[in-house]
Design goal:
Elements lengths: L3 E6 L3 H8 L3 H4 L3 E6 L14 E6 L2 H6 L3 H7 L8 E7 L5 H11 L6 E7 L4
Helix pairs in contact: 4-5
């Protein structure tokens, strides 16, 4: 079974929406949500552990470039550390955006982390 951990800023817009109306992949347990405390502005830093294989400005990019996401994850090799996909900003995450990550996670034995760094600027 694929392991995908979605890390979002605690009490940010994405976290609130995931709690109130989670996408099917979260409800089904295919993606585990982890809310992390951010800095004074609610932003998360890029992870210090793991291998960043892809960084995108928004989750919409994951859906638009759905073929590239699994390739990036599968091409990360077999190191023991998690594979990381960084999303610069998001208010919500939908099934179609997380589907490409799940597809990639099925192609590796490594855990896959999707880290959302912040909310979009107003």
């Amino acid at each position: 079974m694929a392991t995908v951990i979605l890390q979002v800023p605690l009490d940010g817009a994405a976290h609130r929406r995931l709690r109130e109306s989670p996408p099917g992949v979260v409800s089904d347990g295919d993606v585990i949500v982890e809310a992390l405390a951010g800095d004074a502005y609610g932003r998360l830093d890029p992870p210090t552990a793991g291998q960043i294989v892809l960084s995108v400005p928004s989750p919409e990019t994951l859906a638009r470039e759905a073929a590239d996401v699994p390739r990036a994850i599968a091409g990360a090799g077999s190191a023991p550390e998690p594979v990381v996909v960084v999303v610069e900003a998001a208010e919500e995450l939908r099934d179609d955006e997380l589907a490409a990550v799940l597809d990639g996670a099925r192609r590796t034995k490594r855990p896959v982390i999707v880290r959302v760094l912040a909310e979009p600027e107003p």
